Amino acid sequence: MKLFKTLLAVMTLVAGTIFGALQAWAAEYTLVISSWAPPSHGINAILWPNLTKMIEEATDGRVTTEIKYGLAPPPAQPDLVQDGAADMTWMFHGYNPGRFTTTKLIELPGYEGSAEAASNVYWRAYEQFFAGANEHEGLKLIALMTHGPGQLHSNALVTGLSDIDGMKLRIGGGVSGAVGAALGATGIRVPAPKVYETLASNAADGVMMPFESRKGFKLTEVATNVYEMPGGFYRGSFALVMNIDTFNALPEDLQQALNEKVFGLPASTMAGAVWDQIDALGREATMATDGNTINMASDADEAAYGEIAATITADVIAEIDALGINGQAAYDFIASEMAAY
């Protein structure tokens, strides 16, 4: 019986592989996705397959995708796609400082709600407030998304805000950089795929990332303790983008199908739901790993961080106001819509 089950599992895997290959072969258009996290990461293992299914269903199988790895480091992904070396990618806005400003608003601490709620509202806020800023110029914006609440991961035990003062923290950029500075930490900027070796070599004392990273980037091995702030220290802003010429080269009926059924709100909402899913997997991995701990911030530290967050929020709103956008109105929209999601 055991041998039969093994053979059945192998046959199912082979059949699925063959079906996938035949489906790609039958498609008229194959979009090349450049991705920079490990193949096992939830974005590659869950999000891209979900998006591919949405694309194939919307186009009756005429459009599909293919993932390629190692084409460029994370900060170079938008330029890679803009130059046509790949058709699609996912990008973290904080890796390109000075290029994006409106994206910081969704990263602020203090919002209520899941990554799905944040990503859904993020797209709607973009359409209502941010589209005119044209910060993704030269790229076709497919979706906007955030990961779940960013927390502090370290080998040293951190049980209070005062413990962070003087630490060397890997910071991804965007609002997380302002958070680290406000807490007295020295920021070290390295892309996410380099976090494991950065912590393993003691080049940094800790990192601020979502719970997903404890599994996706194996932080359970190199940062055994989590200091969790209710609602998170920040959120991270990401986009799915596409080469404009590739999109424009598709027949008009396929462009319409993708715009109406996949790109924008549907893809953004799906992407946020994936982040919630993989954040949960990261928390489960932490709780299942010997020697790992999760330490919740005290009420006093939560209140103290709220004051820090208010200053960071005011600074970001002022940056957005300087672009001619009503930053406070956009912030209020996000906060109320996320709370009601």
Characterize the structure shown.
With 341 residues, the protein is of the alpha/beta class. The chain has two domains: 28-146 and 238-279, 3-Layer(aba) Sandwich (D-Maltodextrin-Binding Protein, domain 2), CATH 3.40.190.170; 151-234 and 288-340, D-Maltodextrin-Binding Protein, domain 2 (3-Layer(aba) Sandwich). It contains 13 helices and eleven strands. It has helices spanning 2-26, 42-58, 77-82, 115-130, 175-182, 195-200, 213-216, 219-222, 244-249, 252-261, 265-288, 299-321, 327-340, and strands at residues 29-35, 63-69, 88-92, 139-146, 151-154, 168-170, 186-188, 206-209, 225-228, 237-243, 293-296. The strands form two sheets. A six-stranded mixed β-sheet has the order 7-6-8-5-9-11. It has a five-stranded mixed β-sheet with strand order 2-1-3-10-4. The longest helix has 25 residues, at 2-26. It is globular, with a radius of gyration of 21 Å.
Annotated CATH architecture of the largest domain: 3-Layer(aba) Sandwich
Put simply, the count of helices is 13
Topology, number of strands: 11
- In angstroms, what separates the terminal alpha carbons? 48 Å
By secondary-structure content and strand pairing, the structural class works out as: alpha/beta
What is the C-level CATH assignment of the largest domain? Alpha Beta
**Helicity range:** 40-55%
- Share in β-strands: 15-25%
Q: CATH topology of the largest domain, what is it called?
A: D-Maltodextrin-Binding Protein, domain 2
Order of helices and strands: HEHEHEHEEEHEHEHHEEHHHEHH
